[in-house]
Amino acid sequence: MTGQTPNTGTIAALRMTRLRTRLQLVLIMIGLLAAGIGLTLMTGPSMTTPIDLLRILVGHDVPGASFAVLELRLPRATMSILTGMSFGLGGVIFQTLLRNPLASPDIIGISAGASAAAVFAIVVLGWSGAAVSITAVAAGLTVALLIYLLAWRDGVSGARLILVGIGLSAMLDSMIAYVLLRAPAWKMQDALRWLTGSVNGATLEEALPVLLSLAAFGGLLLARRDKLEAMRLGDDTAAALGVPLASAKVLAVMSAVGLIAVATAVSGPVAFVAFLSGPIAKYIAGPGRSPLIRAALVGALLMLSGDFAGQHLLIGRYPVGVVTGALGAPYLIFLIIWSNRTERKL
């Protein structure tokens, strides 16, 4: 017994050290997010001092600053955070379930489905606002179901689903290009602005549906994260642990699609946020740890910092989708090259 006590104490100490390290990383990410929010609220054509910002946030009226902070910058920051969390959480669910870093909604066609429907609604039907958002959500859900059905063959293989999604995405991209070529100039500008992915002109009212979907779908995913972690070990292992695979997969995928579809509907298909958040979160979390919360925080940081960079750090002003696209494209190329080299070695 005396020989076991030091070992038990050492294991407990290691676990506490790892727990503290993980908690510190999460707190650092939250601190970075809070700093980004503060910087976003203070920065603009007219700068707001930290003291004036605090006065505004506690309810005081500061002439020349209150309108800019509360009506322009705060909704923009709120939308960036909520959509970033939705993209990050939805993306890591796909990558976890399919055990493939390429299994991102903007790679396998879900975002393309929402985009095609939104472009059709803007250009052909002449719709705007909530009608376009509802159409995009419905199309995202429909395309996700279609991809799942086309990839089904005695179950859904991750590689098969990705290939089906890429093919369907290419077809939808061709539809978007065709509609844009036949669109009048003024409608094409609206469609292109939506396709780029942007939080320009965001309002708190538009952010409410994203908040509700994040609370509902995100809460559901977090409540079932033990089953998701079991599925990362493989279907056979998860089934042996008592996980109902069919229902758990459908519930997780539909929740992830709901998050992605609603976020895409209000901000457009912001490129590569869902794609990048999962790998970064998994690296931060370490092996064998749930990356869900970290992926949501990483997504929020990517959206907030990308929008800030596009508005204030580059020559000219660019929507957030341009910045995240520039960050994500090199990583996608690296991932494909690395995967090919790994397969050759095997």
TrEMBL record:
GO terms for biological process: siderophore-iron import into cell. Belongs to the binding-protein-dependent transport system permease family. FecCD subfamily. One of its GO terms (cellular component) is plasma membrane. It holds the Pfam family FecCD. Keywords: Cell membrane, Membrane, Transmembrane, Transmembrane helix, Transport. The keyword Cell membrane applies. One of its GO terms (molecular function) is transmembrane transporter activity. The chain crosses the membrane at residues 25-44, 77-98, 107-125, 131-149, 161-181, 207-225, 266-285, 320-338. Its main location: membrane. The keyword Protein transport does not apply. It is found in: Cell membrane. SUPFAM superfamilies: ABC transporter involved in vitamin B12 uptake, BtuC (SSF81345). This is Iron complex transport system permease protein. It is a multi-pass membrane protein. InterPro entries: ABC_BtuC-like (IPR037294), ABC_transptr_permease_BtuC (IPR000522).
